[in-house]
Amino acid sequence: MLAITVPKPLPHQLDVLNSTARFKLLACGRRWAKSSAGLQMIIRGHGGIRKGMLQGGRLLWVAPSAPQLEASRIWPDLQRCFAGLREAGLCDIRQDTRSITLRKGGSVTVKCVGEPGSLRGSGLDGVVIDEAAWVPRDVWTDSIRPSLADKQGWAAFLTSPNGKNWIYKLKERAESRQDWEVWQRPSSDNPLVTQAELDAIRDEIGPIKFAQEHLAQFNDIEGALFPSEYFGEWLFQPGGLWPDVFEMSVMFVDPSIGSEVRPGDYSAIQWAGLSSGEIWIESNLDRRSPVRIVEDVVAMYQRLRPALIGVESNGFQAVLSDLFDMYCHQHGIPPLPLVPVHHSENKAVRIQRLDPYLFRRKLHFKRSKSSELTVDQMQMFQPKGSKEHDDGPDALEGAIRLLNDLAAHYERGDGDD
Question: How far from chain centre, in Å, is Cα 398?
């Protein structure tokens, strides 16, 4: 009889594998064997009622990036599990799509965030999100979660902590939500990892990093620009209120279509309004074409009527200027108050200017997925780290700077110039 070589469950994994919860969040230390548990869920299913490949399920494994996927070794591990069936002609393994399909039903596809091929779809029986704390929130909310709806599919979030980002917030909510279960466990649960080895690692990397990576503690992100105490519910419409009147307002657009754009970058539109010394923000972040940027900016302008719209100058001059002119002409819209803005400092210096507003709790966001994403990006920003997905804070700083310039303009008494 042909065998599928699935890893044997370790004792500390059994609670996770036997749980009937539909959504499982494993915030565990490195070497806890999270990927091994995910592999078993994908192949065998779990909880007695959650489908795996052997029950005919259609599964997806998602990694944050190609390097992290390669480091996890999940694709080679999956291929080894099904090598015998492949030789017997009972399954197809495709390298180009990283997919395995059983002849009697059941399949898994392994994908990275940001690579060609959408994560959107439907009809998934289950998904594993590997190193979920490094995956953008909207990958879950906008792409993966809807694909589970029609089959009531399951999801397993496998991750080590990465500061108090969206996964930390999800963990806090999940602990009291029906059909969710959370495991926050240290690396020492794994009987294959000795205490002597953990002690040696702690001596090498230091207690702070060790607490996050091996004790699974959600601490401030090492190297993050802003401390975690800057971020709380006061950022989002305190008391559910939103001012009826603003003394002045502006918009700022970071189109992310310049020479240094990375795949998957967001275009960011930030509206900022001043009311009684407080700054109120409405965010609009998305991955969109230049034409859609123009459409969304015009729609937001017509609804909110800011005095000025600042646009990052490289993207504006290269692409957007003519598109705005054409769109407004075609739709009979008067010219917008567009102001090209040239940045003379690097992004880290600009984003650091948000510090006094966060410290004094002068910023308040209209709650939305875009505003939560902006806050996530501020919380994750590291001046000496990766600059991925920092468009929201950068556009926010541009909006506040433009708002301050406008206020100074009126204070000088030349507001009608």
Answer: 22
